[in-house]
Amino acid sequence: MDKKQLNFISFSQYIVFVIVLAATAARSDDETPIPASLDGNTAPRPDGVSKLQQALALRIGGTMAAVYNVKMIGFQDTLCDDRGVHFYKDCYIEGTVDFIFGRGKSIYLQTEIHVLADVPNQLTFIAAQAREKDSEDVGYSFVHCKVDGKGKGAFLGRPWMPMPITVYSYCTMSAVVNPEGWTNNRNPESEKNVFFGEYKNTGPGADPAGRVKFAKQLTEAEAKPFLSLGYIKGSSWLLPPPKV
């Protein structure tokens, strides 16, 4: 493949490990080229009945990783944003069920989140952030992203684990987003432990009128920590995209 056709994931000196599809690994101080499109569609589209239909396009299990201009394609569990602090910019992430999930602490900037059509017999979720307890400093922040796709039932997030943190700020949301915005995963007890927030989003899918009561329309002060690179301490490790 022509080097100019490759996009990059770059890593600081503190990276632990990264697995891309067939166990491609990156050492510390690496800038590892990966295909501009990561296709995880080796499993069938989920039908809400069959098991073992997940297929990762990308898993990041190390810390201080930056992902630029990468297209991630899948159905269920497209991106495993597993552990560590991460930065995604100008990416495209596509899927149906929990297609961004894991225990990472990450910023998604100017990234397109594309929902495929509603799945029969199954709800559609974008983010399943996996924070389990108060002591975990993790969460997902989507900033200036575009949420679009087909269907009208996609939830912005759900409590896969007990105490998720997920925030969307300055995002454009199409009617693909369920008017309720968020789900309690059919467990009302989870509502008291989640932090689901929105700040100055626009578009037909961003209307706060129908949102569930356990999600928050954030104030400027509440949103501020999620809007800068300070959320992932990026000034101490984040590098610009490598030149090719």
Automatic annotation (TrEMBL):
The keyword Secreted applies. Its EC number is 3.1.1.11. Pathway: Glycan metabolism; pectin degradation; 2-dehydro-3-deoxy-D-gluconate from pectin: step 1/5. The keyword Hydrolase applies. InterPro entries: Pectin_lyas_fold, Pectin_lyase_fold/virulence, Pectinesterase_Asp_AS, Pectinesterase_cat. One of its GO terms (molecular function) is pectinesterase activity. It comes from the Eukaryota. Pfam families: Pectinesterase (PF01095). SUPFAM superfamilies: Pectin lyase-like (SSF51126). It is an enzyme of class 3 (hydrolase). Residues 52-234 form the Pectinesterase catalytic domain. It is found in: Secreted, Cell wall. Coiled coil: none annotated. One of its GO terms (biological process) is cell wall modification. Belongs to the pectinesterase family. This is Pectinesterase. It comes from Manihot esculenta (Cassava).
